[in-house]
Amino acid sequence: MTNVAAVMDKLPRKFQPDQAADLAAVFQIEIEDGQPYSIQVADGSCVVVQQQHPDPDVTLIMASDTFVGIIEGEISGTGAFLSGSLRAEGNVMLATRLSSLFKR
């Protein structure tokens, strides 16, 4: 199974700048059984850093298997949220844009 670090490493290459033309945001990914990551999107670019960001726009909290499943398209982000496997704090509507920013 793919791990969180491997998925995070691939995200900048899967980034679709055309989907983020109007976006400047920090997505904090809190992995309950792993390390925190921040995904910073601005000016048509994407930077992934293994760290806790001091002021994210939205924080997504989940287990590593849920994160990997969502990114790999095996789990719906909405389904994970509704089942309680994914929690969001901050700008929850911004969280809904995250999946459109990356190629599957």
What labels would you give this structure?
single chain; 104 residues; alpha+beta; Nonspecific Lipid-transfer Protein, Chain A; 5-stranded mixed sheet; 4 helices; 29% helix; globular
Characterise the protein shown here.
There is one protein chain. The protein has helices spanning 4-14, 64-71, 77-83, 92-95; strands at residues 25-31, 37-42, 45-49, 58-62, 86-90. It is an alpha+beta fold and 104 residues long. The chain has one domain (4-101): Nonspecific Lipid-transfer Protein, Chain A (2-Layer Sandwich). It is globular.
Give the gist of this structure.
This protein is α+β, with helices and mostly antiparallel strands. Helices cover 29% and strands 27% of the residues.
CATH hierarchy: architecture: 2-Layer Sandwich
**Radius of gyration based on Cα positions:** 12 Å
Number of helices: 4
Percent of residues in beta strands: 25-35%
**What percent of residues adopt helix (DSSP H or I)?**
25-40%
Q: How far apart, in Å, are the first and last alpha carbons?
A: 16 Å
Write the layout of secondary structure elements.
Blueprint: H1 4-14, E1 25-31, E2 37-42, E3 45-49, E4 58-62, H2 64-71, H3 77-83, E5 86-90, H4 92-95
Parallel strand pairs: 1-4
Antiparallel strand pairs: 1-2, 2-3, 4-5
